[in-house]
Amino acid sequence: MNPVAAVSSVLRRYAVFSGRARRGEYWWFVLLRAAALAGLAAGVGVTAAPEGTPDPPVTDVLVAALLVLLLGTALPDLAVAARRLHDVGLSGLWILVNVVPGIGPLTVFVMTVLPGDRGPNRFGPDPRAHRSGTVAARHAAPAVR
Questions:
Q1: Structural contact between residues 46 and 62, judged by C-beta atoms closer than 8 angstroms
Q2: Which of 8, 12, 38, 59 supports an S-S bond with 47, CB 3.0-4.6 Å?
Q3: Residue whose C-alpha is closest to residue 86's, from 16, 141, 6, 142
Q4: Taking Cα atoms as reference points, which of 56, 83, 54, 76 lies closest to residue 10?
Q5: pLDDT band for position 133 (50/70/90)?
Q6: Max Cα separation, the chain?
Protein backbone atom coordinates (compact mmCIF):
# COMPACT_ATOMS: atom_id res chain seq x y z
CA MET A 1 0.00 0.00 0.00
CA ASN A 2 1.42 3.37 -0.95
CA PRO A 3 1.47 6.34 1.46
CA VAL A 4 -1.32 8.29 -0.24
CA ALA A 5 -3.64 5.28 -0.36
CA ALA A 6 -2.89 4.48 3.28
CA VAL A 7 -3.64 7.98 4.55
CA SER A 8 -6.77 8.33 2.43
CA SER A 9 -8.00 4.92 3.61
CA VAL A 10 -7.49 5.89 7.26
CA LEU A 11 -9.14 9.28 6.83
CA ARG A 12 -12.12 7.80 4.93
CA ARG A 13 -12.72 5.47 7.88
CA TYR A 14 -11.65 7.97 10.54
CA ALA A 15 -14.09 6.74 13.22
CA VAL A 16 -14.46 3.09 12.23
CA PHE A 17 -13.20 0.88 15.03
CA SER A 18 -14.42 -2.39 13.50
CA GLY A 19 -12.68 -4.40 10.83
CA ARG A 20 -9.00 -4.86 10.17
CA ALA A 21 -6.08 -2.73 8.92
CA ARG A 22 -2.97 -3.96 7.17
CA ARG A 23 0.49 -3.08 8.46
CA GLY A 24 1.12 -0.74 5.55
CA GLU A 25 -2.06 1.22 6.15
CA TYR A 26 -1.28 1.63 9.84
CA TRP A 27 2.42 2.40 9.59
CA TRP A 28 2.21 4.82 6.66
CA PHE A 29 -0.42 6.81 8.53
CA VAL A 30 1.55 6.76 11.80
CA LEU A 31 4.84 7.74 10.13
CA LEU A 32 3.38 10.54 8.01
CA ARG A 33 1.39 11.91 10.96
CA ALA A 34 4.52 11.87 13.14
CA ALA A 35 6.56 13.59 10.41
CA ALA A 36 3.95 16.32 9.99
CA LEU A 37 3.69 16.87 13.74
CA ALA A 38 7.49 16.94 14.11
CA GLY A 39 7.82 19.38 11.21
CA LEU A 40 5.27 21.75 12.68
CA ALA A 41 6.82 21.46 16.16
CA ALA A 42 10.25 22.22 14.71
CA GLY A 43 8.77 25.24 12.93
CA VAL A 44 7.33 26.48 16.20
CA GLY A 45 10.71 26.03 17.87
CA VAL A 46 12.54 27.90 15.13
CA THR A 47 10.12 30.83 14.94
CA ALA A 48 9.49 31.27 18.67
CA ALA A 49 10.97 34.42 20.15
CA PRO A 50 13.16 34.37 23.27
CA GLU A 51 11.35 34.53 26.61
CA GLY A 52 10.03 37.92 27.54
CA THR A 53 9.38 39.03 23.96
CA PRO A 54 6.19 38.44 21.99
CA ASP A 55 6.19 35.63 19.45
CA PRO A 56 5.87 36.61 15.80
CA PRO A 57 2.47 35.92 14.17
CA VAL A 58 3.91 33.00 12.17
CA THR A 59 4.53 31.14 15.43
CA ASP A 60 0.87 31.49 16.38
CA VAL A 61 -0.17 30.14 12.98
CA LEU A 62 2.19 27.16 13.33
CA VAL A 63 0.94 26.43 16.87
CA ALA A 64 -2.65 26.56 15.63
CA ALA A 65 -1.80 24.23 12.71
CA LEU A 66 -0.03 21.88 15.12
CA LEU A 67 -3.06 21.74 17.41
CA VAL A 68 -5.49 21.25 14.51
CA LEU A 69 -3.38 18.40 13.12
CA LEU A 70 -2.91 16.81 16.53
CA LEU A 71 -6.59 16.97 17.49
CA GLY A 72 -7.87 16.28 13.98
CA THR A 73 -5.91 13.06 13.64
CA ALA A 74 -6.33 11.73 17.19
CA LEU A 75 -9.55 9.82 16.47
CA PRO A 76 -8.32 8.35 13.15
CA ASP A 77 -5.10 7.32 14.91
CA LEU A 78 -7.02 5.44 17.60
CA ALA A 79 -9.37 3.86 15.04
CA VAL A 80 -6.59 2.57 12.76
CA ALA A 81 -4.66 1.30 15.80
CA ALA A 82 -7.72 -0.67 16.94
CA ARG A 83 -8.18 -2.09 13.43
CA ARG A 84 -4.47 -2.99 13.29
CA LEU A 85 -4.79 -4.89 16.56
CA HIS A 86 -7.87 -6.63 15.15
CA ASP A 87 -5.76 -7.78 12.20
CA VAL A 88 -3.45 -9.68 14.55
CA GLY A 89 -6.45 -11.19 16.34
CA LEU A 90 -6.47 -8.94 19.41
CA SER A 91 -9.16 -6.70 20.83
CA GLY A 92 -8.80 -3.00 20.08
CA LEU A 93 -8.91 -2.40 23.82
CA TRP A 94 -5.27 -3.51 23.93
CA ILE A 95 -4.49 0.07 22.87
CA LEU A 96 -5.11 0.99 26.52
CA VAL A 97 -1.87 -0.79 27.42
CA ASN A 98 -0.16 2.39 26.15
CA VAL A 99 -0.93 4.09 29.47
CA VAL A 100 1.37 1.70 31.36
CA PRO A 101 4.69 3.57 31.69
CA GLY A 102 7.67 2.04 29.93
CA ILE A 103 6.46 -1.40 28.89
CA GLY A 104 3.02 -0.33 27.60
CA PRO A 105 4.03 1.53 24.42
CA LEU A 106 6.65 -1.11 23.65
CA THR A 107 4.03 -3.85 23.95
CA VAL A 108 1.61 -2.06 21.61
CA PHE A 109 4.47 -1.39 19.17
CA VAL A 110 5.31 -5.09 19.03
CA MET A 111 1.64 -6.02 18.55
CA THR A 112 1.29 -3.60 15.61
CA VAL A 113 4.42 -4.94 13.93
CA LEU A 114 3.24 -8.56 13.99
CA PRO A 115 1.87 -9.99 10.73
CA GLY A 116 -1.90 -10.15 10.50
CA ASP A 117 -3.95 -13.33 10.58
CA ARG A 118 -4.26 -14.98 7.20
CA GLY A 119 -7.83 -15.32 6.09
CA PRO A 120 -10.82 -14.12 8.06
CA ASN A 121 -10.73 -13.86 11.83
CA ARG A 122 -13.36 -12.85 14.40
CA PHE A 123 -12.94 -9.17 13.46
CA GLY A 124 -13.61 -9.55 9.76
CA PRO A 125 -12.22 -10.66 6.43
CA ASP A 126 -8.55 -10.51 5.55
CA PRO A 127 -7.74 -6.94 4.39
CA ARG A 128 -5.44 -8.46 1.76
CA ALA A 129 -8.49 -9.95 0.04
CA HIS A 130 -9.23 -8.97 -3.51
CA ARG A 131 -12.28 -6.89 -4.31
CA SER A 132 -14.15 -10.04 -5.24
CA GLY A 133 -13.80 -11.19 -1.64
CA THR A 134 -11.37 -14.04 -2.27
CA VAL A 135 -7.95 -14.07 -0.71
CA ALA A 136 -5.00 -14.32 -3.03
CA ALA A 137 -3.73 -17.87 -3.35
CA ARG A 138 -0.36 -17.02 -1.78
CA HIS A 139 -2.14 -15.67 1.33
CA ALA A 140 -4.93 -18.19 1.54
CA ALA A 141 -5.22 -20.25 4.69
CA PRO A 142 -5.15 -23.99 4.14
CA ALA A 143 -8.56 -25.65 4.06
CA VAL A 144 -9.55 -27.40 7.27
CA ARG A 145 -11.56 -30.61 6.93
A1: no
A2: 59
A3: 16
A4: 76
A5: very low
A6: 75
